[in-house]
């Protein structure tokens, strides 16, 4: 019954809030975009010898299912770009916005490949694509496997629960003791953060972020661990979700800067592409990143949450 209610709730949100997203939110995102630093003009830089972009095309990979970082939609509205190998599907989100800025700076074309989360690193290591722009944390382990540019976003770790949960008023991770929980597979949320909660009953990791949110919404778990952009996007889709942010307290998750800094990965040793991307990111401020993330969150299709299993 709760799953049916959740699906109906999300459907109602799609129908009732979509128009508002293009009106009120549309005006706000126009203002946000105007406040962001202009894209630099590096088109006079010779990039023909940079591994991966010799042909003038930056091929990137992402899940296309990890809002607000990236998602799949059925048209090119709000600046979406075609997903390679599909007939009528498009990628959009914060990662696409950042990728387009990089390509605009150098005059490159952009190609987006959709793949599973756990295939991102192996794919870039073997050269299936030039870079991964997919909301990846710059962890120590990943940094040993790939080259990282960035950060292109500074995330914080938070939890989500529902307003009727016994954990809705939690003030720190100690208040979550004994709860059932999950997070997305192969993330610091699941591997590093959840084990820090005493007595937590950690369930099997979900394959995707939408599936993680559906586990919470249907009552399969009492809370989930994620980052701030994902949590805010979830709260926009599910009005019964509560964001638990323990930042600044002594009862927060213990993570390194690499765990919360979000970077762009490429093949180990490809320092030329790393430096080229960093040159673009270096013209932006943390406020620019936040403004563009807010822009992405405002236009995410709420229907993406209906497809989670």
Low-confidence stretches: 1-29
Number of helices: 10
| Radius of gyration (Å) | 19 Å
- Please give the CATH architecture of the largest domain: 3-Layer(aba) Sandwich
Instruction: Estimate the helix proportion, in percent.
Output: 25-40%
If strands are numbered along the chain, what order do they take across the biggest sheet?
5-1-6-13-7
Q: How much of the sequence is in beta strands?
A: 15-25%
What order do the helices and strands follow? HEEEEHEHEHEEEHEHEHEHEHH
Overall description:
This protein is an alpha/beta fold. The protein has two domains: 36-154 and 258-297, D-Maltodextrin-Binding Protein, domain 2, CATH 3.40.190.10; 157-246, D-Maltodextrin-Binding Protein, domain 2 (3-Layer(aba) Sandwich). It is 37% helix and 20% strand. It contains ten helices and 13 strands. It has helices at residues 2-35, 94-106, 120-125, 140-145, 188-193, 209-217, 228-237, 257-260, 271-281, 286-299, and strands at residues 57-62, 71-73, 81-82, 90-92, 109-114, 131-137, 146-154, 157-162, 180-182, 201-202, 223-227, 241-244, 261-267. It has a five-stranded mixed beta sheet with strand order 5-1-6-13-7. Strand 3 and strand 4 (90-92) form a beta hairpin. The longest helix has 34 residues, at 2-35.
């Amino acid at each position: 019954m709760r799953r049916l209610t959740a699906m109906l709730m999300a459907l109602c949100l799609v129908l009732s809030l979509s128009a508002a997203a293009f009106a009120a939110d549309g005006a706000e995102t126009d203002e946000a975009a105007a406040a962001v630093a202009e894209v630099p003009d590096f088109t006079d830089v010779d990039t023909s010898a940079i591994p991966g972009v010799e042909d003038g095309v930056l091929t990137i990979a992402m899940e296309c299912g990890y809002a607000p970082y990236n998602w799949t939609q059925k048209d090119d509205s709000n600046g979406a770009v075609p997903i390679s190998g599909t007939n009528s599907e498009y990628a959009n989100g914060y990662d696409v916005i950042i990728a387009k800025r990089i390509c605009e700076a150098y005059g490159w074309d952009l190609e987006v490949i959709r793949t599973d989360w756990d295939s991102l690193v192996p794919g870039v290591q073997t050269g299936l694509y030039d870079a991964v722009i997919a909301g990846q944390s710059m962890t120590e382990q990943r940094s040993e496997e790939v080259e990282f540019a960035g950060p292109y976003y500074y995330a914080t770790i938070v939890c989500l629960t529902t307003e009727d949960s016994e954990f809705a008023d939690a003030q720190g991770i100690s208040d979550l003791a004994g709860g059932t929980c999950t997070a997305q597979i192969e993330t610091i949320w699941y591997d590093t953060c959840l084990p820090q909660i005493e007595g937590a009953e950690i369930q099997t990791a979900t394959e995707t972020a939408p599936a993680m949110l559906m586990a919470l919404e249907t009552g399969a778990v009492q809370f989930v661990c994620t980052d701030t952009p994902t949590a805010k996007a979830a709260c926009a889709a599910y009005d019964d979700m509560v964001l638990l942010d323990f930042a600044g307290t002594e009862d927060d998750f213990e993570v390194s800067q690499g765990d919360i800094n979000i970077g762009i990965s490429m093949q180990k040793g490809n320092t030329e592409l790393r430096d080229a991307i960093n040159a673009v990111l270096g013209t932006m401020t943390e406020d620019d990143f936040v403004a563009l993330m807010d822009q992405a969150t405002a236009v995410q299709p709420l229907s993406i949450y209906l497809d989670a299993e």
